[in-house]
Amino acid sequence: MNWTQLLSAKRWGYEYRATGDPLDARSEFQRDYDRLIFSSPFRRLQNKTQVFPLPGAVFVHNRLTHSLEVASVGRSLGRLFYNLMKKENPNIDEEYPFLQEVGNVVSAACLSHDLGNPAFGHSGEAAISSFFTDGQGQKYQDEVTAEEWEDLTHFEGNANALRILTHAFNGKDGKGFALTYSTLASIVKYPCAAIDGHVKGNHHRKKYGYFDSEKESFERIAQELGLVKDPSNPTGYLRHPLVYLVEAADDICYNIIDLEDAHHLKILTYEEVEELLLPLCGDKNLQQRLEGLSDTGSRIELLRAKAINTLIHACAEVFMKHQDKFLAGTFEQPLMQSLDENIVRQMKKIEKISVARIYNAPTVVQIEIAGFKVMNALLEEFIPAYLKERKGHFDKKIVAMIPAQFHTDSTSTYDKIRAVLDYVSGMTDVYAVDLYRKIKGISIPSL
Predict the structure, then answer these.
(1) Where in the numbering of this chain does the HD/PDEase domain appear (predicted)?
(2) What pTM, to 2 d.p., does this model score?
(3) What percentage of the chain reaches a pLDDT higher than 90?
(4) 274-291 as b/e, with b when 16 or more CB fall inside 10 Å?
(5) pLDDT at 388
(6) Of the candidates 136, 157, 231, 438, which lies 20 to 30 Å from 110 by C-alpha distance?
């Protein structure tokens, strides 16, 4: 793979290569970012759970604030990489005209990386998958292909994001978001189909990156950008190199910022957070600065900023140092696992504490259970009603609740199920709970 082909301003749905107006205020990749910022799917992230329940008396991150912070870190990672390249070769812009845009590409991809996540986070994904593996959805297995069944039984938010960005929904622009090919490729962490994913020890196939319905779409992107075929999977590909920077930005943010939220909610003490973050800060004078702040929240903010800065520089340097491996597709682990051994060791401590004290905190577990039940119940109502050929009165009422943009004229069982999943997976936590209550008769809508 090479940067000349990997960094393409060609837009999804258009056959020409966009070059941009030199007098325009924005590059083509900055346009990607702006299109995402102003979109409805992105705004809905403000009411989707990141880790802790929403809303609350104390501010904690939701999917929207998380995505904005990941985009900020991603931009810095891309920019640092470009600066390192420029330092090594002052004429790099002549060789790779779009390399200076790497920060913008990564930032836009980071902004959209959680766009396909359903309400209640991973619990929502599990609920959708479980409906088909253990629930009423089991009966549809004989009506779909093996590839389609793997999609349904392993719902993946990353694959759903690619669908949201490229699918022609009813009444919407047939070109989807019309993002550049490079931005689209940079969100696909596992460039293979569901039936080829979930392979232990294979970084490119740990999960999967596109539904069967988007297989041809991703192949168009891969061929345009010159992605390399995966030698272990003839139908899949190796990652676009910038995926590693998007993944690193996400890893940096949730590992560090979840500690900040845990402190706000009094799950972790200041002393515990300081012990975890201080070794990552790399500032000999930091302890003195911390002692000068009487507010523990301000101390945590300073620690968080310093730790993130250390991780950004470390990741950018590794990406630069091993650039040949990333371009060859032979780098077999996340950037965050490839840093200095002291950093990796400290990050493992953070992960251990996070799993034990944060991700299994009572409030987190409670919302996971509740969210699972809510999502499963909605699927039990909408999918059978939508798939019935002879709909009863109640079925027609249920189907009428699905917005027109999600309906399909296809007679395929898979396409019909996918249409319902498009609707349900796009719901916010608040909307899903409210709809669940109304459908179950727990609350009656006011006239």
Answers:
(1) 59-264
(2) 0.92
(3) 66
(4) bebbbebbebeebeeebe
(5) 92
(6) 231
Closest alpha carbon to 146 in 414, 417, 412, 388: 414
Quick one: tokens of 319?
């990406």
The Cα–Cα gap between 242 and 187 comes to 9
Two structure tokens written together for 103 = 């920060």
Using CA atoms, how far residue 151 sits from 93, 98, 205, 214, 282, in Å, is 41, 35, 14, 11, 44
Query: In whole angstroms, what is the distance from residue 413 CA to residue 25 CA?
Result: 46
H-type alpha helices, 113-153: 121-133, 146-153
Q: How far is Cα 303 from Cα 358, in angstroms, rounded to an integer?
A: 19
423: number of Cβ within 10 Å? 17
Beta carbons within 8 Å of 220's beta carbon, 6+ residues apart? none
Three-class DSSP category at 229: strand
Mean pLDDT of 221-241: 93
For residue 23, is pLDDT > 50?
Answer: no
Q: Distance between CA atoms of 383 and 155, rounded to whole angstroms?
A: 15
Do the beta carbons of residue 385 and residue 400 sit within 8 Å? no
Q: Which residue has the tokens 């020890």?
A: 201
Per-residue pLDDT at 24:
60
DSSP 230: E
**Nearest-10 crossing angle of helices 362-387, 393-400:** 120
Instruction: Output the furthest CA–CA distance in the chain (Å, rounded).
Output: 73
